[in-house]
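Hi there,

I know you've been waiting on this one. I reran it after we fixed the sequence typo, so this is the corrected version. Both the input and the resulting structure follow.
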Amino acid sequence: STWASGAGQLGYGDGDEVTLVGFVDVDDLTDGVQKNATTYFRHTFDVAAVDAEGYSFRVLFDDAAAVYINGTLVAQSTNLPVGALFDEYSTATTPDNTISTDTPIPAGLIVAGENVIAVEVHQASETSSDMSFDFELSPLRPSPYGDYFEIVGDELRTSVDFATTGFTAPFTFPLPVIAEDPTGRTVEVVVPVFLTGGATDTDLDGLHDDWERANFGDLSADPGDDPDGDGRDNAAEYAADTDPNDGADFFAITSIELDAGGATVTWPGKPDRTYALFRSATGAAGTWVLVQGGLTTAVAAPLNSVDTGSPNPGDMLYRVESEPPPLQ
C-alpha cells in the first residue's frame, strides 16, 4: 500500500494539527485503547545541486524521535533507547510540541538527486493523549565572524586583536557553534558573544551610562519611567535603542506578510542589539514559541524572519524581543 500524505503539523490530540494521523489499538483484550508505540514518517525530495555549506534541521515531536537521512541515523531523542523497535515506548514524556535545536547534517548525506528523510516518533505510553510531528530542513549559513574566534579544547577564544578590527563596544557577535557528545551526536547552537568595554552601568539601574547621559544629561533616569508617554518605559526604550523622549519613536513590528512560504515578520533593526522572534496562537503566558533568535544587523536597517513552521501563520500572534549587550 502507499503512504498516506499530508501537510505539517501532523499528529493528533492537541488540536493544532493540519493533518490528523490515526492510531491503532494494539491490545484489544485490555479495556480502553492501547495506542501503538511508534508512528513512521518519510519525505522524498530532489536536490538539483548540493549546498556547499551543508544543511541543518529542526524536528517537532512528542514524545521522542529518531531522524534518518538516506538511511543513516543522524539524531535521536535522549529518552529513546538506542535501536528502539517499533513496539518500544520512550522512557519519558516531553512537553507538547517539543522543538529540537538546529542540528547539522553530516557532509555527504544530502546528495544531488533523490533524498529521503525518515522519522519515527515514539509515544511514552499506550495511553498517551497526543502525538505531534513536523520537520524543517534548512541550508547552513556561514558566520561572517568566524575568523575572529577559535575553539581551543572546550573554550571559545578570540583569535585577533579587536582593536585592529574596527568593531567598537558594545557589539554582539552571533556565532554558530557545533558541539559533539561522546556518542558522536552533534548539535549546532547560536552563541551570542558580547564585545564590551569599561564600566557601563555605574549606578546599576540596568541602563547604559552613555545612553542615560545622551538622553537625560545625567544618571538620574529611572528605568521604570516613561517620559514620552508612548507606553514603553526607559528600560524598554534602552533595550530597543529608541528615543525615550520622543513618543513617536518606539519599537514595534512594521509588517507581517503572508504567502505560501509562511509569514515574513519585519521590524526596524539597530546595531548592537540582538533580536528574537516568537509566535503564539493565543498570546497567553507560557504559549510563546521561539521562531528564530540571534538576529543582528551592523547598521540601522529593517530586519525580518520567516516563520515556516506554523501550519496557520495567519492565525498566529508574533512578538519580537530586542536585547542589548550585557552591562558591566
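Quick highlight: The chain has a mean pLDDT of 84.

Best,
R. S.
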